[in-house]
Design brief:
The complex is a heterotrimer of chains A (555), B (302) and C (265). Helices cover 29% and strands 19% of the residues of chain A. Chain A has 17 helices and 20 strands. In chain A, helix 10 runs antiparallel to helix 12 and helix 15 runs parallel beside helix 17. The longest helix of chain A is centred in the first third of the chain and has 21 residues. Helices cover 78% and strands 0% of the residues of chain B. Chain B is built from 13 helices and no strands. Chain C is an all-alpha fold. Chain C has a domain of 155 residues: MetI-like fold (Orthogonal Bundle), CATH 1.10.3720. Classes of the chains: A alpha+beta (555), B mainly alpha (302), C mainly alpha (265). The interface between A and C is medium-sized, with 28 and 21 residues.
Chain lengths: 555, 302, 265
Amino acid sequence: MAYANLGSANRGKKLRRKRLVNRAYYTPLIILLVIILVVIFSCGRKKESSRLVIGLNTQIERLNPITIKNPQTFQVAWQIYEGLLDLDESGQIVPRIAERWETEDNKVWVFHIRKGVTFHRSEIFDTPSKTRNVTSHDVLHSFTSFCSPGAYPSFVLADSIKGCAEYSAGKAKRVKGLRVVDDYTFEIELNKPEPFFLYRITSPWIAIFPKEANIEKYKDRWGLDIAVGTGPYRLLSKTDNQIVLVRNEDYWDKSRIPKIEKLVFRVIKNDQMRFSELLKNKIDLMILPNSLFFSVFDTDGNPKQKYKRRFKFKEIKTFNHHFIGVNIKKIRDIHLRRAMFYGTNRKEMVKKVLLGYADILSGAIPPGMNGYIPTFKRIYDPDKAKKELKQSKYDGREIELLVHDLASSEQICQVFQKQMKNIGINIKLTKLDFNSVIGRMVKGDVELFSMFAEIVFSSPEPLLLNLFSTKKIPVPNFWHYSNPNTDKRLEELRNLTDRNASLKACAEIEREIMEYVPAIFLYRQNQVVMFSNAFSNLKINSHNHYMFEKMEKLH
Amino acid sequence: MYLVKKTAYYSSLMLGIILFSFILFHMVPSDPARIILGPNAEESQVLSLQRELGLDKPLYLQFFNYLKKITLLDFGKSFVDGRPVFKEVMGKFFITLTLVFFSLLIILVYTLFGIHSVYLRKIAHYLNFLFISTPTFFSGLLLAILMVKYSPFSFFSGSFESIGDYVFFLFPAFVLALYPMGILSRILIEEMERILKSQFIVAANAFGVPKRAILYRYALRNAVIPYIAAFSNQLPAFFTGAFIVEVIFSVPGIGLLLIRSILERDFPMLEGIIIMNGLIFILTNLLFETVYSLVDRRIKKS
Amino acid sequence: MSFILKRNVSRPIFFLFILFSSTFVIPLLPLQDPLNIALDERLLPPSSEHPFGTDELGRDVLSRTVSGFATTVKVSIFALLSSLAIGIPLGGLAGYFYKTWVDGIFNWTVSFIFSLPFLLIMASIMSIMKPGIFKVYLILTFIMWVNPARIVRAEVIRTKNLDYVVATRAFGASEAYTLAYAILPCCIESAFIFSVSYLPEIIGLEAGLSFLGLGVQPPYPGLGKMIFDGLSYIYSAWWLSFFPAMILFVLVLVVNGFNFLYKKG
């Protein structure tokens, strides 16, 4: 039953309401007008000089050096923060906050802190100049923070520095091996001698930041809108989708003061949208994701003509490895593992899926790491694979391979599945999100798992120690590889002070380890950076540290 | 008495939601401490972090502690990066709200527009059919592609600084509005057609009441009742659609925060979002009940 | 049960049956293997050999689309039928015991389900158990049973006090008998009518779930997943997303069309 109020029908007055236009037509007209005005307004935007706009594919994390773990964040964070040392583009160690260093026994390392390095100006400093000099007390505070339980990069230092493991387990009040000698001298004592210690801290991951970060007032804002370091750029503003960095005019290294005044990082999740923005010149630089290779490169892997005219391409080789890990506890049959190893056609994966932008790996150590040259040669041998399979007790059961959602894992694993089928091994794929794969990997509840890692060390020794020592089971020795002979040889590395001897030993140890197939290492992925022709001199080191301070804008 | 009953009902609902999600999260076989520290950290460090985060206590104790803190409006800190949950959820929620608001505007304009003349109603009829048949992500993708290629406003900087930021919202809002627009417009038009044939309208016409008045004051008033009912039914799906749209257009709202928190097993944040969601649901329920009784004075609050 | 022969119920059932059996015809069609990886034929545009082109691993998009269509239809129809099977009795009980605690619990549960963010439950459950298409089916049922339940409940409340029902009780029938044979047959009709109109929603949800990665496992194809994976290639290899999206769209259009025409007649 409808209901009406006929009484108010104005029966008596017979007023014919005059209306010019139907009221409801107003609303869309108004909206249209607003849009027109807005378009007019935006067309007259000033172009800022000396600005580089970078497209990111995901939101970056909180800019807190001890919790950063996503390589995308590094692009931003390492403009702000610096460590004691750094690596230049050719892989040589260069001093940063540490001016020089020495050691007598490779066990106690003394660092001389550079004088005159100041933090970015910020309200967190209680001084009239809003800044202060970096001293070894800051180094102590930073390194101690990196050993704390909540620090992601603590694994870099936990084995190595005396007292660090106890501190990170919450069992000690301070780290015994970190000592302030005086305001500009800092000492680090290790558990055991390590000639390769410096290669643990060449990454700006282990950065120096002020102890004022812990003040109650600023603790909640640290990394969100306050991020104070010593680097060539300082933080101007940060929202979830956009971060703006501005040149640090007081940077200590006058030869490396940035030429480009502003860095603007924009988060555009969708690859195609980001690419469109690059083509429209709304952003100037982006990392080319694998999915766009097909549209940007021709079949030989060279950029198409239309893009070559307007953009530059840079291929960078960083320290990373992509692999299919094997849980030796679950797949005990060494012949089965060898069959999988020899049956994997890495070349097909690299050439067809990654269009050649990757280097084949036979072992854990990526080539070029401190001059390392791998020795394993012929690793794809389907006949040998089939022979090994015959020797094994494989009964045709399905072996589960965990796949995650990043870095072409899904595509590569499907290709792997097909390659295994060709030699007679049945693989079942299970796709989970990245963290679930890690969870199961750590628990040991896997047979095969697809994973990749950005390696923070810049030399093979700490990497091998981390991945293949018995005492590192189950984490990060995920394959449960245990061999007392390997352990002995790894410990012996601590006594090799000659670089070349050490590298040679690493190569031999790696070869021994790979015979046992703890994992099937596939390739080292190379990054391709695509940026506008208006810029030049992009330098990126093997740690994935973008040295934007060296970049120039052409006129 | 009525108020007491209502409060009891809704608070028990709220409690049930919190309890359910709490149990669900802790059944998920993944350790937030391990995720924060990554696969390289030693077990001893992970245990230490667990202790710091309070994850080692028995479940019921954690639950009660959490309830205690909530009453003080302390929703804890995110596991991912230590951000205060309350501030974060409020901020993101504001953005999603803007999206929803724009959407509602578009829906309102379209549905009211579509009932004017017989001609418009016919067009709307077929358009609605099209709108109902398009899944949100399909239309979203289409529009996103077009927007990227042809519109100058294709980026949202995270805060409302320039006008471009506001205009940007029109695109995802439009996509979000498509499906509800189709359904609601169809319901409204059907109801209007039904009512316009009824006796009292014929009578009003005969009395010489202007057409505009018939449409708005008489017919619409009645048609609006099932319209509002359908509207409130659409709401849960509306929010799900909002999440999908946020993913496609990279709008940093609650949807994206939800997905990220799930992937990172960020329990405090997830709890915060669920509570917020539940609260919204309850509030909109109450709102609709009130609007209902206002529009149709025959319904009394009993 | 004579009510099955009534036009209002038989038509939706017939339609669903046709849709469902079409999925069994599909394996018999002369199509290529949807799982056949051919790395030398990646991302080929539509041609006579591959009418819908090839995907990023060289597989034929036509066969994958068709296969994904079959999966989607199967899961959706199963979920729909289960949600009817669960929703109708529950709704009937709630309606019959209107104004008692049974109805109270029902309403509370419905509000509860509506107030939880759908996505959350999905992702959490997926993480607990191994993901898979079966879990998708469970989740869809869990979400969708409320719709027929509510409708049946409303109808039961309406017919509960009609003369003939009262008469049945007066003749000494037990409560269960009355519910099953007198009340429900009339109410189920509306549920069935509406059932087909839920199908597009279920299909959309299933596609959305695969879109988010929680559904079909690689290397098997799923419509939502194909659309999502093809997004990255939308400008260079548009056929990857386009054809699955079109098939999805057509499917939903057809179902809605059935609703549309059927309501008129």
